[in-house]
Write a structure and sequence with these properties.
- This protein is an all-alpha fold.
- Helix content is 56%, strand content 0%.
- α2 crosses α3 and α4 packs across α5.
- It is elongated and about 80 Å long.
Length: 163
């Protein structure tokens, strides 16, 4: 199944769906018919028939969630946490100070430096998405920007000019 944001089911959603399958298994074992179960649980009849087939061949253990699909993350949770702290420190901390932006290639290099693991750009993108980061283009701001002076100017001069 594909998802619009490129992600999958959250752990809570996987638990909820497993509960639906187990409830369907209870009803199937009581002799209820799949079309009625499908209507009651608001799922497709095809799913209920598939669950019935799995229940007959593998038992209830066949209906248990297998966890997230796809390959496991190459990084341990500690390495992911360390990567998050390194990203928050900024690219200039790691030697990329010409434009002060993280790119996928730079993050891939940072991962290699921190953990020794090689990631593709697409893999880096998915990892960052799972970590809660999103692609953004930062607003260009002057290095020596004085927010207080700007606020004072807006308060005094701009109101006079705007009239």
């Amino acid at each position: 199944m594909r998802y619009a944001d490129g992600g999958g089911l959250s752990p809570a959603e996987r638990v909820r769906r497993e509960e639906v399958r187990m409830l369907a298994a209870d009803w199937l074992e009581q002799g209820r018919r799949p079309p009625g179960i499908a209507r009651e649980l608001r799922v497709s009849e095809v799913s209920v028939y598939r669950w019935r087939r799995i229940l007959r061949t593998e038992g209830r253990r066949g209906l248990v969630s297998r966890g997230p699909s796809g390959p496991d993350c190459l990084l341990s949770q500690g390495e992911v946490d360390r990567l998050g702290r390194a990203l928050d420190a900024g690219p200039e901390t790691w030697g990329w100070d010409e434009d002060r932006r993280w790119t996928l290639a730079r993050v891939a290099e940072l991962i290699r430096r921190l953990s020794g693991h090689e990631y593709t750009l697409r893999g880096v993108s998915k990892l960052l998405h799972r970590m809660g980061y999103s692609p953004q283009v930062p607003a260009r701001r002057a290095d020596r920007r004085d927010e207080r002076a700007i606020a004072d100017w807006r308060q005094e001069s701009w109101t006079r000019v705007k009239g």
